[in-house]
UniProtKB/TrEMBL annotation:
Species this protein is from: Melaminivora suipulveris
A Pfam family this chain is assigned to: FtsK_gamma
E.C. number(s) listed in UniProt: 2.3.1.286
Catalytic-site annotation from UniProt: 228 (proton acceptor)
SUPFAM superfamilies reported for this sequence: DHS-like NAD/FAD-binding domain, Winged helix' DNA-binding domain
Protein name, UniProt field: protein acetyllysine N-acetyltransferase
One MF annotation (Gene Ontology) recorded for this entry: histone deacetylase activity, NAD-dependent
Top enzyme category: transferase
Keyword annotations from UniProtKB, A to Z: Metal-binding, NAD, Transferase, Zinc
Annotated SMART domains: Ftsk_gamma
Lineage: Bacteria, Pseudomonadati, Pseudomonadota, Betaproteobacteria, Burkholderiales
Domain Deacetylase sirtuin-type: 96-374
Length: 374
């Protein structure tokens, strides 16, 4: 009789043993209320380690072990010979219940909202084929010429670069301008626009992206705040007049292999000094923020009438905190938050909806649930 109880704690075959026992183990394994989140965590991180479960869910070793063991036969396999846990083949790309629940909840929130702020960072552009500048390696993959001279994003995107090596600085921005002009905003932009149009007070965009893709996707200019400016506008490096002008006539000729601007560099039509993109760079004391401030004023007026809009934050990482800080202020004012972030979602957060998905995948997922609501 003592023997049969001993078997229950034999962890080399935990799930089949537990299933075979008639005595249930309260709040252990699959009955544990944390099981869905633990399961989600393992799937997203691709990591069946006990330590990750303990740290992320803030639980003890025993509970984490029970949770992980309960995933055997669900989403995990255990390789007896190598003594290794791995994600089961069947679980690699199967539908995930918790994600579907969150997408459905997000669809409900959007349907019920009177107004919405779209707070977007770099992750929003990735699905339109724009490069990911996260980390030196990501940046240098997109700009091999800058990798050869070990020029980091922070070094080339700076007023100092326009002073010291203007042809390279313009080579970089000229290439980006061409890329942003050529790229088509992904389907997620159109979905957000359509959702906003159905809301009583509509929506407003708060974005740190300088690509101009919300305008391109049909959002009205008067409903967009570009907190870091726009690559489609220029200013004088000497700031002679405070003018900001449109780049419509600018036709970049760039030697991409060398990341060098070819021919005459863009100049200020008033004083002839070097022109530069009207975007906020690193260590930038010369950015002309007049246009951005006007947009901000429009946002403030809109916020007064919209009161507590739903906030949908997309692809805004902690590394560039402007968008996240705005989101936090909106939460303090009582706004609900839907956060979409492939790398930095807090997926076990209870109050808001946080989705560790790419922008397009999340928005299309929400749209599917909206269609089901109608
Ligand atoms: Zn000038």
């Amino acid at each position: 009789m003592a023997q049969s109880f001993g078997l229950r704690h034999n962890l080399s075959h935990p799930w089949p043993m537990m299933a075979a026992m008639n005595t249930p183990t309260p709040s252990a394994g699959r009955d544990d209320p944390l099981y869905p989140r633990a399961r989600q965590l393992v799937l997203f991180r691709r990591d069946p380690g006990i330590a990750t479960l303990q740290r992320t869910l803030r639980i003890g070793h025993q509970r984490a072990t029970q949770l992980r063991d309960a995933m055997l036969g669900d989403i995990l396999d255990h390789d007896e010979q190598e003594q290794r846990w791995r994600i089961a083949d069947a679980a690699q790309d199967g539908p995930d219940l918790l994600v579907q629940n969150k997408l459905a909840k997000a669809a409900h929130w959007i349907s019920a909202a009177q107004s919405m702020v779209i707070a977007a960072g770099a992750g929003m552009g990735i699905d339109s084929g724009l490069p990911d500048y996260r980390g030196d390696e990501g940046f240098w993959r997109a700009y091999p010429a800058l990798a050869r001279s070990r020029l980091r994003f922070e070094s080339i995107a700076s007023p100092q670069a326009f002073q010291e090596r203007p042809a390279t600085a313009w080579g970089f921005y000229g290439q980006r301008l061409q890329l942003y002009r050529a790229a088509t905003p992904h389907a997620g932009f159109g979905l957000l626009h359509a959702w906003g149009q159905r809301m009583q007070q509509g929506c407003f965009v708060f974005t740190s992206n300088v690509d101009g893709h919300f305008q391109k996707a049909g959002f009205p200019a008067a409903r967009i705040y570009e907190c870091h400016g726009s690559i489609h506008r220029l200013q004088c490096t000497a700031n002679c007049s405070g003018d900001i002008w449109f780049t419509a006539d600018l036709r970049p000729q760039v030697d991409e292999a060398a990341c060098e601007w070819l021919g005459e560099l863009p100049a200020c039509p008033r004083c002839g000094a070097l022109a530069r993109p009207n975007v906020l760079m690193f260590d930038d004391w010369h950015w002309n923020h007049a246009r951005s401030q006007q947009q901000r004023a429009l946002l403030d007026v809109w916020l007064d009438s919209a009161q507590t809009p739903l906030v949908i934050e997309i692809g805004a990482g902690r590394a560039s905190p402007t968008v996240r800080n705005f989101t936090r202020r909106m939460q303090q004012r009582g706004s609900r938050l839907i956060r979409v972030n492939l790398h930095e979602a807090n997926i076990h957060n209870l109050g808001d909806i946080e989705l560790a998905l790419g922008a397009r995948e999340a928005l299309e997922g929400i749209q599917q649930h909206r269609a089901a609501l109608v």
